[in-house]
Amino acid sequence: MTDAALAPARDPAAETLRRFARLRLWIFGIPALILAYLVYVFFAFEGPRLIAEADGENGRILLADMVSYKVHVTRDHRDGSVEIAMEGERKGRYPEGEAPDWVSLSPGETVVQLRDGHVVTLIGEAETRFEVPGYGTITAIASRSGGVETTYPEGPLPDWINASGNRVSITTDAGRLIITRSATTVMRYFPGWELFFFTLDSPYQGLGPGELLSRAAGGEAAAIWQGFWRNDMWRHREVAWAIFETILMAFIGTFGAALIALVTAFFAARTFTRFALVRQVFRRLHDFLRGVDGLIWTVVLSRAYGPGPLTGALAMMLTEIGTFGKLFSETLENVDQKQIEGVRSTGAGALTRARFGVIPQVMPVFLSQILYSFESNTRSATVIGAITGGGIGLLLTQAIITQKDWEEVTYYIILTVLMVFAMDALSGWARRKLIKGS
Amino acid sequence: MADIPLSPAARTADPAEGYLELVRTRRLWNGVGVLLFAIFMVSAFLTANGRNAGGFWNGLPNVFDFPADVVSEAWDKAALLPGLLWQFLPSLIETVNIAAAATLIGALVGAVLALLVTRGLAPAPRAVGVIRRLLDILRAVPDVVIALVLIFVIGGGPVPAMIAIALHTVGAMGKLFSEVAENASLGPVEGLRSVGATWSQRMILGVIPQVAPNWVSYGLLRFEINIRASAILGFVGAGGIGYDLRNAMSWGPGRFDEAAAIFLLLFATIVTVDQIGGAIRQRLTRGAAL
Q: CB-based contact (8 Å) between A311 and chain B?
C-alpha cells in the first residue's frame, strides 16, 4: 500500500529541472517579446522612412540658433530700400542710415561682409552678387514676373545651395543668403543672445556691468530696471507673468481639488458612509473624473470659458478631484477608530468627530500627497497651458511654432526647468517640515 | 531642585490652565494658517479669473452646452457611431503604442541608470551625482517641450512624442527604481561577487530578481500616466488620437459625433488600462505570482 501511495510522487530531480526549464522560458521569452514589440513599433511608426528622410538641417539650425543670434540685412525689391535688424524683428531694427561696421551703405549699393572673406553685394533694386571663397561668384536677378534668375560658377550645384524658380537659399558657415521674388535677405550669425538686457532704443544698450552699477548708484536704478523689464524683444515682464500664471494654475488646480476631495472622500470611504449606494455613487464619480482625461476636460471647459489660466486650472482641478478623492478615501478607511470613539464618547456629532477624531490623524498624509501633486502639476500646467493658451506653455508653443527664435525657446525652457526645480525644492522642504512635525 | 521653572505653563498653579493656553496658541496659529490659505486661494482664483477670456460665473451656465451638443449629435447619429469608433481605432492604437514603446524604452534605460546611482550598487560612485542631476533634469523638462522641438527637427508623427515621453520616463523611473533597489538585500550581490561575477552579472542575477515585482508595478503605473501624456501630445501635433480630436474639434458643430467617438475611445482605454494595471499591481505587491 505504501508503494502505491508513493507512486504518484514524481521524481524530485525531474520536477526541479522542469521548473528550471519553465523559468528559462520566461527569462528568455520576456526579452524576446519586448524586442519583437519594439521591432513592430519601429515599423508601425515608419522608422525606415524617418531614417531615410533624416536630414540634420533643421537640427543644425536649431542648435546654432540656440546659442547665437543673427542680424538680417533685408532689401525690398520694390524700391531697393535696405533694412538692418536683429533677428529681422521690427523691435531690433537699426535706425535709418545707421549700420554695424560690417555693412557699408551707399546709394544703390550695399556691401555686406560676412566671415572668412564671404561678401554679398546688393546692387540696385534686385541684383545680388555673392562671392564665396573657394567656389566662385553667384549672381542673381529677381523680378516679380520672372522669379529669381541665378547664375552659378561652372560645375554641379553644391548641396548648400537650394534653388527653385521663386526662391534661392544659400547656406554657408559664414552666413545665409535667401532671395525671393520680393526681397533679398542676408543673415550673419553672432554668438550669444542679442539685446537680452536692453533693446537698441534704450540708452543703456551696450554698457558694461560696472558702468551700469555706477549709474544705478547715481540714481538711475529705476530707469535701468524699467529698460530691462520692458525689453520689447525678450519681454521679461510678460515671461515673468507667464511663469506666475503657470504656478497659479497648478496652485488652484491642486489645492482647490484637495478642498473639494476632502469632503467627497468622506462619502466614498466605507468607514464613514454606511449606505453602499451613496458610497458607490461617490466612488464612481471619482473614477469618472479621473478616467475622463485632463485633455478632455480641457477641451470641454475651453468651449465654455475660452482660453486662459482659469480654464486650465479648472480642468486640472476636475482630474485631481478624482485622484485625491480615491487617495483620501483609501486613507480615511485606514484611520484608527479609537480616537473617533474617544471623541464620540463626549457626545460629539459627526462634524466634530471628523474635525477632532479624523482630521488630525490624516492631515499629515493628505498634505504630503497634496504637496507631491503640486510639484507634478506645475509641469502639467505647462502642457495644459500649451492647449488652453495660458502661462509659459503658451509662450513656448508660440515661440516653437514660429520656428525661428530658438534662443527664446531656450530661454523659456531654462526658466521652465528652473520653475519645476524650485517647486520641487519647495514641496520637498514643506513635506520634510511636515513629517518632522513643526 | 524641584522648582526649576520649565516653561511659563509649568509654573502656573493649575495645569489645566497651562494646557488650555497651549491649545489657544495652537488654535491661533492654525487659524492664521487657514486664513492665509483662504486669502491666497481667493486671490489666486480672482487673478486667474481676471486673466481668462471668459469669466467663471459667466461661463458656468455654458459648461454643459458643449457636452450636451456632443451627446445630442452623437445620439442623432447613433447609427454612425460604430463606424466612427472603427475609423479612429488605428489612431487609438498609435496612441497606445506611443505610450507602450515609451514606457518600455524609458523603463529599460531608467533601470540601468537607477542601478548606476543606487548607493551600494553603483560601479562608479563618482558618477552618481552627475547621473542623478541628469535624471532630475529629464524629469523637470515638460514632455511637450521636447515633443515640439523634435517635431521641428524630425517632422511630425508618433516618433517625437515617443522620444519625449520616453525621456521623461527615464527620469521618473530612474529615481523610483533606484529607491526600490536601495532596499534590496546585498547578500546575493556579495555572494556573486565572491565567485567573481562581473557588475552586470551581479545586477542581473542578484538585484533584478529581488526588485522585479516592484519595478514592474511602477512601470505599469507609468504606462497609465503615459497613455494620458501621449493623448495630450497628440493634441499638440504629434499624431495619435489626440491629433484626430483636435481636427474633430476644429470642424465645429455638425461634426461633434466624431469628437464623441474619440471621447468614448479615450475614456474606455484609460479606464481599461487603469483597471487591468491596478489588478496586476495589486497581485505583484501582495507577492502573488503573476
A: yes
What number does CATH give the domain B70-285?
A: 1.10.3720.10
Instruction: Kindly list the residues from chain B whose CB atom is less than 8 angstroms away from the CB atom of residue A49.
Output: none
Residues 6+ away with beta carbon under 8 Å from B193: B202
Answer whether B100 sits within 8 Å of A37, measured CB to CB. Answer: yes
**In chain A, which residues have their Cβ closer than 8 Å to the Cβ of B53?**
305-308, 311
CA distances from B116 to A53, A318, B103, B146 (A): 36, 39, 19, 25
Task: Supply B8's cell numbers.
Answer: 511659563
- Please report, for chain B, the start and end positions of each structural domain, with discontinuous segments joined by +: 8-51, 70-285
| pLDDT computed for residue A433 by the predictor | 81
Burial class (CB in 10 A: 0-12, 13-18, 19+), B160: buried
Q: Which residues contact B226 (CB under 8 A, 6 or more apart)?
A: B98, B99, B100, B102, B103, B165, B169
Rg from Cα positions in chain B = 27
Q: How many other β-carbons are positioned within 10 Å of the β-carbon of residue B60? A: 12
CA-based nearest residue to B161, from B78, B254, B241, B86: B241
In chain A, whose CA is at the least distance from the CA of B90?
A44
Mean predicted lDDT score pLDDT of chain A:
83
What is the H or E stretch that residue A167 is in? strand A167-172
| Alpha-carbon torsion angle A13, A18, A23, A27, nearest 10 | 110
Contact between B260 and B74 under an 8 Å Cβ cutoff? The reply is: yes
- pLDDT tens-digit map of A328-371: 998 888 888 888 888 889 988 888 888 888 888 888 888 888 98
Q: Do A313 and A252 contact (CB within 8 A), yes or no?
A: yes
How many other C-beta atoms lie within 10 A of the C-beta of residue A56? Answer: 11
Residue type present at position B26: R
Residues in chain B: 290
Q: In sequence order, which residues have a C-beta less than 8 Å from that of residue B180 and are 6 or more positions away? A: B211, B214, B215, B218
pLDDT-above-90 percentage for chain B: 21
* Regions of chain B with pLDDT less than 70: 1-13, 286-290
Contact A263, B243 (CB under 8 A): no
- Residue whose entry in the numeric block shows the C-alpha cell 478632455: A296
**Cα atoms in the 13 Å half-sphere on the side-chain side of A268:** 24
Query: Is A8 a residue whose pLDDT tops 70?
Result: no
Collect all residues with Cβ–Cβ distance below 8 Å to B30 and sequence separation of at least 6: none
Q: What gap in Å lies between CA A412 and CA A404, rounded to an integer?
A: 14
d(CA A272, CA A266): 6
Interface of A with B in 313-332 (CB under 8 A): 313-314
Please name the residue that has the C-alpha cell 489660466: A309
- A360 touching B (Cβ < 8 Å): no
Question: Minimal Cα–Cα distance from B51 to chain A, Å?
Answer: 6
Residues B68, B249: Cα–Cα separation, whole Å = 15
- CB atoms A304 and B53 under 8 Å: no
Which helix (H) or strand (E) segment holds residue A131: the answer is: strand A127-132
What residue type is assigned to position A28 of the chain? F
Residue A319 or A364, more confident: A319
- CA B146 to chain CA centroid, Å, is 17
For A67-126, the DSSP string reads SEEEEEEEEETTT--EEEEETT-GGGBPPTT---TTEEEETTEEEEE-GGG-EEEEETTT
Amino acid at A429: W
Contact present, A144 and A181 (Cβ < 8 Å):
yes
The top-level CATH class assigned to A236-436 is mainly alpha
Of B139, B145, B241, which to mutate for an interface test with A (greatest number of A Cβ within 10 Å)?
A: B145
Cross-chain residue pair B62–A300, CB shorter than 8 Å: no
